């Protein structure tokens, strides 16, 4: 970790900070504050915005877990955000991804999967999410072909939620890797 984690729980300087801390701990529940929270809480306003936005992505979107977690895990693999992978891969496995499919999602750019491999292990909707996530993460721009394939499987709300998930978790992975949160990116 490049910064020290704040105390668990961190001291608060005023009622606003106490309210923010309460919101963050309420979202985390019994699990308690994570190393990510204990890094974000160096800045209470940033932690509050992060908590609200990522809380909406994780718990208030209409996306099924397999769709959401496929995007998150692919981002973690591309960006080598292993702390993110460690927390989200079990959710994707629980959502029904086989060990072989998990290995495909985790593969790096030195050994990209072929279309045949993707189609053998993933549903057409999952392939569309995989390719959309790849495009958004690697080049930001999404080709008309990749977008059209995503639209075949998802309605407008779901496309917005997939896009927001990919954008949000690219932010998460970059934060985790840059600050080495969880000490997994030495």
Automatic annotation (TrEMBL):
<dbReference type="Pfam" id="PF02627">
    <property type="entry name" value="CMD"/>
</dbReference>
<feature type="domain" description="Carboxymuconolactone decarboxylase-like">
    <location>
        <begin position="46"/>
        <end position="103"/>
    </location>
</feature>
<dbReference type="GO" id="GO:0051920">
    <property type="term" value="F:peroxiredoxin activity"/>
</dbReference>
<dbReference type="InterPro" id="IPR029032">
    <property type="entry name" value="AhpD-like"/>
</dbReference>
<protein>
    <recommendedName>
        <fullName>Carboxymuconolactone decarboxylase-like domain-containing protein</fullName>
    </recommendedName>
</protein>
<dbReference type="InterPro" id="IPR003779">
    <property type="entry name" value="CMD-like"/>
</dbReference>
